[in-house]
Amino acid sequence: MAEEKKLFKVTIDNISVDVEPGTTILMAARKIGGDVVPPAMCFYSKLQGSGGKCRTCLVRVAAGSTADPRPMPKLVASCRTAVMDGMVVENITNPAVLEARKGVVEFLLLNHPLDCPVCDQAGECDLQDLSYGHGDAGTRYEFKRRTFERIDIGPYIQLHMTRCILCYRCVYTADQVAGQREHGVLDRGDHAQIATYIQKSLESPMIGNVIDVCPVGALTDRTFRFKNRVWFTKPVDAHRDCPHCKGKTRLWMRGDHVLRVTARKDQWGEVEEWICNECRFEKKKVSDWVIEGPTQVDRHSVINAGHYTNAVKPNEFFTKVLDGRKPKLLLDIHTVSDVNKVDLNLLPGPATGATFNGNPQATGNNTTDVKKGAGKNLAGTDSTNPNTP
Amino acid sequence: MTSLTNRKTQVERKPMTAMEKLYLPAIIKGMGITFSHMFKKNPTINYPEQVRPFSSVFRGLHILNRDEEGRERCTACGLCAVACPAEAITMEAAERQTGEEHLYREEKYAAKYEVNMLRCIFCGLCEEACPKDAVYLSQTFAPANFGRQGFIYKKEDLLIPNPVTDPEGFAKAKGSIPQAK
User: Fold this and answer.
1) Considering only alpha carbons, which residue of chain A is nearest residue B98?
2) Cβ count within 10 A of residue A307
3) Which of B78, B97, B114 sits opposite A229 (nearest CB)?
4) Mean pLDDT over residues A165-178, rounded?
5) What is the CATH number of the domain that holds B124?
6) I want to staple B150 with a disulfide (CB 3.0 to 4.6 A). Which of A77, A196, A260, B145 is the partner?
């Protein structure tokens, strides 16, 4: 007789769901879906041991279980709390949870520079979504924000430590996906930073996945830096035969140019299949890929703005009407416009003023503000800084 | 049939009187009205020598603003272009290099910035969307042009004069003095 697996019945915001023992509250809520799912900044279901750091997924447990129906004394992090049978959880139905989440967002934004107009992550940033959805409009923080120098770790990845919220996702990715970890979190408290310690670049062939797991713009793709905004590029699902990974990716296209390659993300913003560096950074031609079709994007997402599907191009009737003569007064915008004259997609780094003025191969190299290896925090208080007092 | 309004009058088709047949009284009466206008206030002005003040919320041609040190404010964040209902704005970004800090305010700037004034509907949503105080709709409207090419405004056409090197031009562009381009 096959033993019947006992399922736990959990009630989240008055919606009941049966889940297997050992499931966390967050995963149970994701099984329900919709508004009751707590937001998560550090938790990543595909990374072992992630979660419990950012505290945005706080919920109230109104009844611990059927056997012990007492409520839990404090709000708990739903990503690290396993469900019990008969547990009653309050998320958006409890104003205390929403208030606590507001406080957490304020904490996360304490040191965040809010340079979204410059940041390449804007438009698909978890912290942006979180602060719009759950945060307050203002901040009460009046002190100087923690700032770091921007550094290139390896030829492909750029680290803006100033934007980091220390979620540790990239550290777990390097451990579990890339197989070799060369970076970690150094120092403690306000001085904590992601760093490669002694001038080491990240060389694993899967390390590019840290860009996708980063919930903010701290780790960004250097080959996409400042090329375009996320919402002006059109996501397309594509695949290729890759010897290192499954090769199932998402191309971010502008016209016929592949500006960026990322892994495909599911509805929780988590990567479906990890992809290798070769797919991500080196295959920037349409001919490298077999295109499956446009990605389904949520209608309300900014990524969907200005993208038209099933657009019908009207037939050109002028020459027919004019007995074969070409119309004189029509303006072809491409003969006048200066935009889109330079192919940016094959540039290995950001464009500079020179790229647009005669030298289309010029890329920015940040020679002054790159310190190979660890970036100094500008207050000069970290262990990698030889001048630390 | 009943009339729809009560203002209907019956047209009289009587033969003209001798006085009316002279026409002169009617002409004098009409000319009197005409000459009386010579002594009234002129409702028109001599544009472009004279110009009327615009409302302070008038939305005319775009300008790209600079900060008080003369650095370009625009960071090519693309919010104006995504807010634009007419899709008139396009741009390309570049990274600020060492030695260009006096030219651009942020580490990213718009290397190319174009507004297609033929598409623009002057709704001002770009101005609303701009997080960097960079795009403003000025008090100037687009001058007439024989060719359509002249209505693609590039960054050189849109940038406000530098307040450090050309304070007069900056004040003129920034103030509410309407000017012909």
Assistant:
1) A368
2) 15
3) B78
4) 86
5) 3.30.70.3270
6) B145
Q: Does B38 reside within a domain?
A: no
| CA distance to partner chain A, nearest, from residue B62 (Å) | 17
* Structure token digits, residue A366: 């940040």
Domain range holding B157?
A: 62-174
For residue B14, give the 3-state DSSP assignment. coil
CA distance A185 to A194: 4
Name the E strands within chain A: 8-12, 15-19, 58-63, 76-77, 87-90, 151-153, 157-159, 184-186, 193-195, 219-221, 234-239, 248-254, 257-263, 290-294
Residues from chain A that touch B118, judged by Cβ atoms under 8 A, are: 331
- In this predicted model, what pLDDT tens digit does every residue of A10-62 receive, in sequence order? 999 999 999 999 999 999 999 999 899 999 999 999 998 898 999 999 999 99
| Residue B15 resides in a domain | no
Task: Name the DSSP letter for residue A377.
Answer: B
Give the nearest partner residue to B92 out of A231, A339, A349, using CB atoms.
A339
Q: Which CATH architecture has domain A8-97?
A: Roll (3.10)
pLDDT at B122 over 90: yes
Question: What's the pTM?
Answer: 0.82
The pair of three-digit structure tokens given for residue A252, joined into one six-digit string = 């971010």
CB within 8 Å: B98 and A367: yes
Q: What is the pLDDT of residue A388?
A: 42
Q: Are strands A8-12 and A87-90 parallel, antiparallel or unpaired?
A: parallel
8-state DSSP, A125:
-
User: Region A339-345: what's the mean pLDDT?
Assistant: 87
Contact A331 B87 (CB under 8 A): no
Among the listed residues B163, B149, B159, the one whose alpha carbon sits nearest the alpha carbon of residue B110:
B159
Q: Examine the predicted complex and report whether its ipTM is higher than 0.85.
A: no
For chain B, the domain total comes to: 1
